[in-house]
Each structure stands twice: as structure tokens, then as C-alpha cells.
Write a structure and sequence with these properties.
globular, Growth Hormone, Chain: A, two-stranded antiparallel sheet, mainly alpha, single chain
Length: 435
């Protein structure tokens, strides 16, 4: 087969199979309350499972990047096995927790399975197809990686209604049955992706013994640039998670209680669209860092407008201010997604393709720490600033904290400005040898 015929079967399709499977980690909010109720713990106690999953995603990517670099078949198989086993194990401990309500063993088992084991599958699964895509799509690296990472972002929108339907149809114990069923389905999808995934036949992987082949050696060529990319990536994720974690309550706060489900789907589309759109757009720039400048300026302007108009505390009394809040949520989701999809190509522009999987993996450690700080930072601010007010929607009484949500924006605005300064000063233009 010709290269042009192979790249879809050997790179694009397996990347989508892998990323559309592991991306369902973001469906956690759909069933977290149900898990908490079923095993007899508070929702806040079970929420740590998701935080651990994101943390170990980033850390496994950082520490296992060399395995991905050397053998994508081994790393993609590890991803399929760990993700499926973690999901099945989560189902088992949910069942155990239902049979023994309040059992600390059940809660710890969920932490280990959903957080640690699935986290390893997430990290290796996320990395495995990225370099392969860039090798196959040499002229449109951004579009190629954006396609895969968009699959990761779109997974929530695709899987959410399926999971909800399973929960509604499986009856008593549907929550653990759903995990067991999906473990089999996602293993099948990821195993097919593992079988199909392959680098171009003509690509020669530098041996680890070659001078400068190690990831750390490559990073040392431009350490300030790498530190800049790491920090701005971390800040973008932290700000994104801070706002996305409060998204549903903010939508309710501005008077759109009945539209929460629809608008959450729309923001998910912007998240996925940002991953594909910004990365494809970046292919048209000589300096790919330009796309991050656009993302941060867009985020600063959108956040600043809502702060100036007090759009959240206005609570939907002014239609224009309400629209500005929605634009902010759409912009933050798009920039959050675009920040993810452009990292591997930005790194390849500065450091070349040798050991890019390992370098990308180290950079994803920023995701690990942001996963622990973003949500928690927003929750802390909302709990300690402002006060709750009651909204009535039909027969339902909803408690919201508009001043608390507005305060989150002040913090994210400062962080976005810091990220923009780093983007303009620490991340230089790509190296000529990597053009």
C-alpha cells in the first residue's frame, strides 16, 4: 500500500479508537453521585477517584514516555489492558461497596482501580498514537494530532447518553454492571487500535545510546523554552478546570437552569472543536506558539468582560451580560482543548521528532498537577467567598453562590495573564534545524 493509503488505517483510525475510549474518563460527573450513594460515601469522598485518574494520567505519561518511544505496540497494549482492567475493577468494588455500605475497602479499591490502574492506561493510551500521527501527516501535524485529541474531548459527548441509557435500563446495581459492560467494549476498541497502530516503514528511531537521544538531553538544548511551555500548559489547564468544574452551577446562576444539559453539550463541542480547530489553524503559522498567544488573549478578554459587567452576580437580569458569560464558557472550553492539541506539535517544532513521545510525556506531568489543583482551587474559593442564595426552578430549590463564582474569575484572569507573559517571553520561535 502507498503511504497516502496507509496513514488513515495505521494512524488516524487507531488514534481515534484509543482516544475515544480513554476520553470517557471525563464522564465521571454523570455517575459520581450514583457511585457515592450506592457504596454509602459522600460525593466529595468519591470525587478523589477522578482527581487521582488525571494525576496518574500525567505521571504515567511522564514516566512511561520512553516505553511509548521505543515500542508503541507494547505501550498501546498496556493502555488497553490497564484501562479495561481499571474499569472492570471499579465495577467490582462498586458492587462490593453496595453489598457492604460504608466499606473503606470499597472506596480504596475504586481509588486504585479508577485512579491508579486506569490512570496508567490513560497516560500510555494518550501518548501512543501522537508521534505516529505526526510521522504519517508530516505536512499537517496539527490537524492530525488535533483529530486524535478531539476524539479524547468528544468522547464525553458521545459516551454520556450511552452511559445514561445503560444506567436507566440495567435496573438495580446498574452502576457496577455498566462498568463491567463498558470494560469489555472499550478493551475491544482499544485492542483493535493497538493492532492497527504502526509507524511509517521508513522511519528510523534513534537508539538510546546515540548522543543526545535521551529526552533530558534534548530538553537541555533549550531548557527555558521547555519550562515556559510546561508552565503555560499547566496554567491553561488549571484555569480551564477551575471554570469547567463550576460550569453547570454558573449556567444555573444566570437563569438557564432548564438549559444546563443542552449547554453542557455545547461546551463539550467547543472543547472538542478547539482541539481540532486551533491545531489545524496553527499549521498555517510559521510560529506555532502564535496559537497560544491567541488562546490566552481570547481567554483574558472574555474573562475581563464578565468581571467588568459582573455578569455572574447579575444572575441573568441582563441578556447581554448573560450572553457574555456563555461566550466566556465557550471560549475557555475551546482554549482548554486547543492547549492540549498543540503541545506535541509545539514541542516537535522546538526539539524535533527524536524522543518526542518522552518529551511530550514529561510535559503532560503539568496535566497531573493541574488535575489536583484546578477543581480544588475553584471549590475552595466558592466555599470561602460570597454566600449562597436560593433559586427556584419549578418545584426545585437550587443553592448557588454567584459572588463565589465571580471570585474564581479574578483568580483565573491573573493566571491567564501570567501564562500570556510566559508565552510571549519564554517560548521563542522554533529552531531552524527543526523546521
Amino acid at each position: 500500500m502507498k503511504k497516502s493509503q496507509n496513514k488513515w488505517v495505521r494512524a488516524a483510525i487507531p488514534a481515534l479508537l484509543l482516544h475515544c475510549s480513554i476520553g470517557t474518563v471525563y464522564c465521571w460527573s454523570i455517575f459520581s453521585q450514583e457511585i457515592a450513594d450506592y457504596i454509602g460515601f459522600s460525593k466529595s469522598a468519591t470525587e478523589w477517584a477522578f482527581s487521582f485518574a488525571i494525576f496518574f494520567l500525567g505521571m504515567s505519561a511522564a514516566f512511561l514516555g520512553n516505553i511509548v518511544e521505543k515500542d508503541i505496540h507494547k505501550s498501546s497494549l498496556i493502555a488497553a489492558i490497564c484501562f479495561a482492567c481499571g474499569m472492570a475493577g471499579t465495577g467490582f468494588f462498586i458492587w462490593y461497596g453496595g453489598a457492604h455500605p460504608g466499606s473503606i475497602l470499597a472506596l480504596l479499591g475504586i481509588y486504585v482501580c479508577y485512579g491508579f490502574i486506569m490512570g496508567i492506561g490513560l497516560g500510555t493510551g494518550y501518548l501512543s498514537p501522537v508521534k505516529t500521527l505526526m510521522l504519517w501527516f508530516e505536512d499537517r501535524k496539527g490537524l492530525a494530532t488535533g483529530l486524535a485529541v478531539a476524539g479524547f474531548g468528544a468522547a464525553k459527548a458521545i459516551a454520556s447518553p450511552i452511559m445514561q441509557a445503560l444506567l436507566n435500563s440495567l435496573g438495580e446495581g446498574g452502576i457496577y454492571k455498566m462498568f463491567l459492560i463498558l470494560a469489555v467494549v472499550y478493551f475491544a476498541m482499544m485492542f483493535v487500535g493497538h493492532l492497527l497502530l504502526a509507524k511509517p516503514a521508513g522511519w528510523h528511531e534513534p537508539a538510546s545510546s546515540e548522543k543526545g537521544a535521551r529526552a533530558i538531553d534534548v530538553i537541555r538544548e533549550k531548557p527555558v523554552t521547555f519550562i515556559g511551555i510546561w508552565i503555560m500548559f499547566y496554567l491553561n489547564i488549571t484555569c480551564g478546570l477551575a471554570l469547567i468544574s463550576q460550569e453547570k452551577m454558573i449556567i444555573k446562576c444566570i437563569g438557564l437552569v432548564g438549559a444546563v444539559g443542552v449547554l453542557s453539550s455545547v461546551t463539550a463541542v467547543f472543547n472538542a472543536g478547539g482541539r481540532l480547530g486551533f491545531s489545524a489553524w496553527a499549521d498555517t503559522f510559521k510560529d506555532r506558539n502564535t496559537i497560544y498567544k491567541i488562546i490566552f488573549i481570547m481567554s483574558i478578554v472574555a474573562t475581563g468582560l464578565v468581571i467588568l459587567t459582573q455578569g455572574i452576580t447579575n444572575m441573568g437580569q441582563n441578556t447581554l451580560f448573560m450572553i457574555l458569560v456563555l461566550i466566556l464558557l465557550f471560549a475557555v472550553n475551546a482554549g482548554y482543548g486547543g492547549g492540549f492539541s498543540n503541545v506535541p506539535t509545539l514541542l516537535s517544532d522546538h526539539y524535533g521528532m527524536k524522543n518526542i513521545s518522552a518529551i511530550h510525556g514529561i510535559t503532560l506531568s503539568a496535566w497531573a498537577f493541574a488535575g489536583l489543583t484546578g477543581n480544588q482551587m475553584a471549590t475552595f474559593i466558592v466555599n470561602h467567598f460570597g454566600s449562597e442564595v436560593e433559586l427556584t426552578h419549578g418545584s426545585e430549590v437550587i443553592k448557588v453562590n454567584p459572588s463565589g463564582y465571580q471570585m474564581v474569575l479574578y483568580v483565573t484572569l491573573v493566571l491567564y495573564i501570567v501564562a500570556a507573559v510566559i508565552c510571549f517571553t519564554m517560548v521563542g520561535k522554533k529552531s531552524r534545524k527543526n523546521k
